Amino acid sequence: MESIDWRNLSFGYVRTDYNVRCYHKNGHWGELEITSSEYIPLHMAATGLHYGQEAFEGLKAFRGKDNRVRVFRWADNARRMHDTALGIKMAAVPAELFKKAVFTVIRLNEKFVPPYGTGASMYIRPLLIGSGAEVGVKPASEYLFVVFVTPVGPYFKEGFKPVDILVCREFDRAAPLGTGCYKVGGNYAASLTSLEIAHKKGFSTTLYLDPKEKKYIDEAGPANFFGIKKNTYITPSSRSILPSITNMCLQQLSRDLGLQVECRPVPYDEISTFEEVGACGTAAVITPIRNILDPDTKTTYEFCLDGKPGPVSTKLYQRLISIQNGDEPDTHGWIEFPEQNNN
Ligand SMILES: Cc1ncc(COP(=O)(O)O)c(C=O)c1O
């Protein structure tokens, strides 16, 4: 599209032509509807508004040098949204409906998939809300599934450049046995105050610790955390973090590169032993971390001493974006082409 400055897109909302919707009523999903309206009609007593029965996802589509549009790992997002739905007692979206909605909305808005080589991509946002009216605390009897798309640039304005992050002990984004492992809006609402504090102090995001003991690393704002040392990719396993699909990719790509992979509780005290650290996610891709400031002990852990991302993070980043853009073979079956799926 001529009016969009693809190279300078931020991670924000840009209107596209269409979105798709589907209603779950009387125990089953209806037909997929296509609309140009950016608004959804919602009952004022909808459980999504009062009791947080709301789930969402985030995935991306990329345009290759061959001009073909590639959707990245949609089935994993479908699975995670399914788990989230069950976790907060919502009607789950079947994988086939998820796929149909995602592929349809991409095809309808194909001109908004940014050109190859701009660094931008199409962000796909599936949203599931309890739309049925209730006043007591209980699951809704009706649900609305919406998928919209928007072209985006990098989540952290720095792109693939090292950022500084702030350790957060005053706030948790989720409770120890709460909803941290689900993609529900409440976790993000809970993170807003701490994110604002970090931003005001000049940090890109917060580093959350485990909410029970504050002894282990949880995640980095809206992204998972990883550290590299001794040829090993190390990432926290925790009940209160979102299972990141990008992190799953990086674990696989690390193995491909001959690294060991450890997914385990990562003690906070281990930070100083890492050679490289980073944040990863669909939006963040890999964001290398330069400084981690602990405001309570007034310690700064420094990485990227030459100002550049570390060698392993760089290799992983390049591999991942090359596969997403179709520059390297997709040996793990992560890519699908909406044009070939007229479901
Ligand atoms: C809290 C949180 N952690 C991690 C991630 C990264 O997950 P993914 O790689 O699936 O995008 C996200 C983004 O979805 C997130 O919101």
Characterise the protein shown here.
With about 350 residues, the chain is α+β, with helices and mostly antiparallel strands. It is about 20% helix and about 30% strand. The protein contains six helices and 18 strands. The protein has helices at about 45-50, 75-85, 95-110, 185-200, 245-255, 310-325; strands at about 20-25, 30, 35, 55, 60-65, 70, 120-130, 145-150, 165-170, 205-210, 215-220, 225-230, 230-235, 260-265, 275-280, 285-295, 300, 335. Strands 1, 2, 3, 4, 5, 6, 7, 8 and 18 form a nine-stranded antiparallel beta sheet that branches. Strands 9-10-11-12-15-16 form a six-stranded mixed beta barrel. A hairpin with a 5-residue loop joins β5 and β6. α2 crosses α3 (about 95-110). The chain is globular and about 55 Å long. Bound molecules: pyridoxal-5'-phosphate. Pyridoxal-5'-phosphate binds near residues 58, 244 and 246.
Largest beta-sheet details:
9 strands, antiparallel
Which band does the percent of strand residues land in? 25-35%
The kinds of small molecule bound in this structure are: pyridoxal-5'-phosphate
Separation of the first and last Cα atoms:
26 Å
Give the mean pLDDT: 96
Count of helical stretches = 6
The residue fraction in helices comes out at: 10-25%
SSE order, one letter for each helix or strand: EEEHEEEHHEEEHEEEEHEEEEHE
Structural class: alpha+beta
Annotation, overall tally of beta strands: 18
Q: Low-confidence stretches at least 5 residues in length (pLDDT < 50)?
A: none
Dominant shape: globular
Radius of gyration computed on alpha carbons: 20 Å
